[in-house]
Amino acid sequence: MNFKQLSVLAILTLFSAALVLAESESKAIELLERVDNLYQQDNAYAKMTMEIQTPDYQRSMTLESWSIGLDYSLMRVLAPKKEQGVATLKRGNEMWNYLPKIRKTIKVPPSMMMGSWMGSDFTNDDLMREGSWVEEFDVALEEKNGVYLLDLVAKENTITVWGAMQIHINVETLLPIKQLYIDEDGAVVREMTFSEIKTFGEVTLPTVMTLTPLNKEGNLTRVIYDDMQFNVDIDEGFFTLQNLQKRR
């Protein structure tokens, strides 16, 4: 084999490697978009149960929510009675809480984004999330033992709480199994697991999400989707401060 043949072989090898890398990156983005949009689909309604556990107490709430993608959402507490009517509205990058006992609407400032939502392990920032993960993170794909591993690292100009995340996806169902939240020091501080797969209409997804803060022993919050409907008849005009204050 002469030098010219070796050069051609080297170029073909590099070209092939570049194609494999491009295909892997494209697939990683496709999987990330799928997971990111799974619970954030357009014109959706959901009824769910939220169970909160701490070393000191356990409590449960029944919630309902409406959403249009990541930009608009309205979530309201249906039970227990003492918290009935408490609601949260998100429009773009703005967020409000309504407290029916004092009949007051409070705009949530940036300083409260990491505060707990209704005493759960979910934060206001979890509900407030503005952009898609594809826009905020670089993603790499790896496959191990029937599981896709998506490693997300925050892009340089991204303003985000998490420096990185890792998402585990079942290769056969393409549904999430587990999600790890990693701080800027590289420590895993939260774990979300997904279970109980069901189909609502044409959408199949895990209906139980369990969030465990790894720095708070004995704490967890579980969300159980009891009902989900898609393509419901709502538009941006539904997400108003007036609707935020309605009991039902």
Average pLDDT over all residues: 87
- CATH architecture descriptor name: Clam
Which sheet architecture does the biggest sheet show? 13 strands, antiparallel
State the share of residues found in helices, binned by percent.
Answer: 10-25%
Individual helix count: 4
Give the total of domains: 1
Shape: globular
Q: What percentage of the residues does DSSP assign to strands (E)?
A: 35-45%
Strand order of the largest sheet: 6-5-4-3-2-1-13-12-11-10-9-8-7
CATH topology (fold) name:
outer membrane lipoprotein receptor (LolB), chain A
Low-confidence stretches: 14-22
Order of helices and strands, N to C?
HEEEEEEHHEEEEEEEH
Looking at this structure, what is the CATH superfamily? Answer: Lipoprotein localisation LolA/LolB/LppX
Oligomeric organization of the protein chains: single chain
SS class:
alpha+beta
Radius of gyration: 21 Å
Strand segment count: 13
CATH class: Mainly Beta
